[in-house]
Amino acid sequence: MNTSRHQPGVNARPGRTGRSTVYPAYAQTGPESPTPGTKPIFLYLRLSKYHKDKADAIERQRIDLTRMLTAEGGWTIMGEYIDNDSASSAAIKTRKGWRQLNADIKAEKIGAVAFWKLDRTNRIASQCIEWIGDCQRAGVQLRSHQDSTDELNTATAGAKLVTGIKALLAEVETDSMSERQLASKRHLAEAGFHHGGMRPFGWMQGPRVTDAMGRTGIRLIPHPVEHQALKDAVDLVLAGKSLAQIGRYWKEQYGITTASGAYVYEATIYRSLVSPRMIGYRMRQVPEHQRGVKIDLLDYIARDASGEPVISQEPVCDRATWLRVRRLLEEAKTSKARKPWGSHEWLLTGLIYCQCGGRLYGHQKTRHRASGEKQVEYVYRCLTNRHRGAGNCPGSCTINANKAEAYVLGWFFSQITDEALAKARARRRAARSDAAVDDLLAQLDEATAEKNALLAKQGTSAYKGAMVTVLLGLIEDAQNRIDVLQRRVDAVELDHLVITDGPEVIRSWESKGIKEKRNFLRRMIQQIDALPGRGTIDQRIQITPVA
């Protein structure tokens, strides 16, 4: 890991860029009541950012409409409904000014509306015609700087025809613009170019380049600080660190914080680490998040004309490492054994077993004393009879959690002294000559070759659509076997120590997170067996060290 220090806060992540001017849905700009002899009228002003409108479009519309209504006479401008959005047909979802205008029309608060041009109101023909009809039925007069007043306010067939044609042309223009933008973005994605939006954490925009096919664009290059921070985060996840610990590490080591100077949110770190960008892939058309709907991001990566994934930026780690990180994060996210608020840490979860072969699970017991006082006790207990039926575990083991953890920690600390670590080194040297090591290495090579063969099948005709999920499952299975075999090989690797600095681990034990503590125990302990009965804790617990 990079140990260079940076001043905290100097690499604060910027907040999402907002609009240069934020407009309220409605603003009262005129008097409380219209001038005598005039009628009240309201303006609808809209800036379409992606329709080549300049930043002062709303001001220009206001000037034009004010001049027009003044020239007509008989009007008092009471207020303005304003929107600042895109030209997309989906933009209506976020148009708060438009929603407020229609709510006030329905409530009969408005008698007249003026807008610069009909396509400022709506660019979907059917909805535009329907809105004009609703206004006519509600008695709302419409005024436009660019459109005929008779066409907007009469119910004749000719007027409807002209209005419908204009609305349809506006919708066609929007669709054509959308098609051009999608085609442009498709080529940018295929070439591995960045096309705007908030830059991904870990990279930044590089110089403009031209690819072999003559397409010009900007590629992402590693950020001088954030890219190394992601590399460190990979190591920290593999070492058992939590996302919260990574956030603290980023702030202390690199000065990476939120825009307000706080630790980077755990959800932000999680999204960065599970993104296929980590292995150089470019994301493409990822659907909007829906609560309860889980997607595999590997299904939404850019591919070239031959169907191969596009490598658009320098990766943080290799694919096998990333799959392992992603799996560890997913397991931590869905774990049923995480510490509930206010309860015990359950240090031995996953390590301690009953004589029947089943795991012992943490359980909180509440006893009531004769005085009525409640006494909470934490225990590990076997749930085999509950899960598999009565009689599967004759002993039904239950053991006090505090005593069991204290005993295991005492054993663990005694094994990570300098003398014990030297003996562990000697055992690993001796284990290297064991013929079983060669067999493990052969199995590891076979599993790795299988995984590489599966990776090569990505994007082929045999694995399309729903079969992509099947292929990913096979890759995941192969990776699981590789991880298991790798751990077994590491256990007998020459000069590979379980823990390099035992005294330092002991000194810093209390400051470590529960996941990291369990990780240290697993490096030294293969399994803990708990026996039923009422004997002393040293009689009831048997520790099997890693060979």
UniProtKB/TrEMBL annotation:
Region annotation (Disordered) ranges: 1-34
Residue span, Resolvase/invertase-type recombinase catalytic domain: 40-192
SMART domains: Resolvase (SM00857)
Keywords of the record: Coiled coil
Coiled coil: 430-495
Domain (Recombinase): residue spans on this chain: 200-335
UniProt KW Coiled coil keyword: yes
SUPFAM superfamilies registered for this protein in UniProt: Resolvase-like
InterPro entries, A to Z: DNA_bind_recomb_sf, DNA_bind_recombinase_dom, Resolv_N, Resolvase-like_N_sf, SSR_resolvase, Zn_ribbon_recom_dom
UniProt name for this protein: Site-specific recombinase
Species this protein is from: Glutamicibacter arilaitensis (strain DSM 16368 / CIP 108037 / IAM 15318 / JCM 13566 / NCIMB 14258 / Re117)
